Amino acid sequence: MEQDSAAVGRKRRRRGGAANRRKTSSSSQEACPAAPQAAAPSSEKRRRKAGEVAAAPKAKGRKTTSLLDKMRARLSGGHFRMLNEKLYTCSGEDAFEYFKNEPELFDVYHAGYQEQMSRWPEQPVNVIINWLKSHNKSWTVADFGCGSAAVAKNVKNKVFSIDLVSDDPSVIACDMAHTPLEPSSVDVAIFCLSLMGTNFPSYLQEANRVLKPSGWLLIAEVRSRLDPNTGGADPDKFSEAISQLGFSLVSKDANNKMFVLFYFRKKEKSKAVDNIDWPQLKPCLYKRR
Ligand SMILES: C[S@@+](CC[C@H](N)C(=O)[O-])C[C@H]1O[C@@H](n2cnc3c(N)ncnc32)[C@H](O)[C@@H]1O
């Protein structure tokens, strides 16, 4: 599913604001695994799907096409890795400015991300969607770093979908450290693989601001980022920092090979501890295969 940014740029002409959007995604493999592989060109994919055999082109022509496709896919994979690294190594404010200036790059990022996610046996966003479906449909939800807004598209709840860029009027384009949501206005705040910026604690502080007392905070993160054996943060320190912000850990689902999912609840009455000792969350960088 390669895309070059120029082509994508022709498709989308938009800026941040409160509305605009893209297509969704899913994820990868062990830790932050492989970058997108040389995806077959869409015409080739369509042909394969339809069970067609490629009309016998001249051997030389076919070779040239396949070489070009491989080169394009490699460029696209490299572009994705670069954008992914950027998101993990800059602040949310810088990421917002970056994509505001070149919103078409957001599609490049999400095409690569989707490619990665297609390799994960289970998508954390689906686990979260199922959790929401099994709870109160009248709860208001805020999906921080919503990607393709899969949550909003799959549940009956009112969902505020938030991301850096949007081409969908239902998605709020902003740096999620500063959302336009009212204080104590949502019942569930979700971060599904979206604690990417170097200032990730400020996203959680914002979630704390908009959550009602007893509201739920669901965080899915790439397993390796919270595994001290692979250079990740200590998950207990991570939970402890969030407790100091004013939450109680209700449960932690570590059954999945690729991600961990934390379920916190905001305390009825709480005041965040000053100078919380936040652990560092290492970037999830994808290796070139
Ligand atoms: C890895 S994707 C996950 C998307 C979606 N939650 C899912 O599970 O499919 C992380 C998303 O968080 C968004 N994001 C990262 N930092 C952000 C910020 N400071 N403000 C808003 N969105 C942000 C990225 O743009 C990206 O769409």
Automatic annotation (TrEMBL):
<comment type="similarity">
    <text>Belongs to the methyltransferase superfamily. RRP8 family.</text>
</comment>
<keyword id="KW-0804">Transcription</keyword>
<dbReference type="GO" id="GO:0032259">
    <property type="term" value="P:methylation"/>
</dbReference>
<keyword id="KW-0539">Nucleus</keyword>
<comment type="function">
    <text>Probable methyltransferase required to silence rDNA.</text>
</comment>
<dbReference type="Pfam" id="PF05148">
    <property type="entry name" value="Methyltransf_8"/>
</dbReference>
<feature type="region of interest" description="Disordered">
    <location>
        <begin position="1"/>
        <end position="64"/>
    </location>
</feature>
<keyword id="KW-0949">S-adenosyl-L-methionine</keyword>
<dbReference type="GO" id="GO:0006364">
    <property type="term" value="P:rRNA processing"/>
</dbReference>
<keyword id="KW-0808">Transferase</keyword>
<keyword id="KW-0698">rRNA processing</keyword>
<dbReference type="GO" id="GO:0005730">
    <property type="term" value="C:nucleolus"/>
</dbReference>
<dbReference type="GO" id="GO:0008168">
    <property type="term" value="F:methyltransferase activity"/>
</dbReference>
<feature type="compositionally biased region" description="Low complexity">
    <location>
        <begin position="25"/>
        <end position="42"/>
    </location>
</feature>
<keyword id="KW-0805">Transcription regulation</keyword>
<dbReference type="InterPro" id="IPR029063">
    <property type="entry name" value="SAM-dependent_MTases_sf"/>
</dbReference>
<keyword id="KW-0678">Repressor</keyword>
<keyword id="KW-0156">Chromatin regulator</keyword>
<protein>
    <recommendedName>
        <fullName>Ribosomal RNA-processing protein 8</fullName>
        <ecNumber>2.1.1.-</ecNumber>
    </recommendedName>
</protein>
<keyword id="KW-0489">Methyltransferase</keyword>
<feature type="compositionally biased region" description="Basic residues">
    <location>
        <begin position="9"/>
        <end position="24"/>
    </location>
</feature>
<dbReference type="InterPro" id="IPR007823">
    <property type="entry name" value="RRP8"/>
</dbReference>
<dbReference type="GO" id="GO:0006325">
    <property type="term" value="P:chromatin organization"/>
</dbReference>
<dbReference type="InterPro" id="IPR042036">
    <property type="entry name" value="RRP8_N"/>
</dbReference>
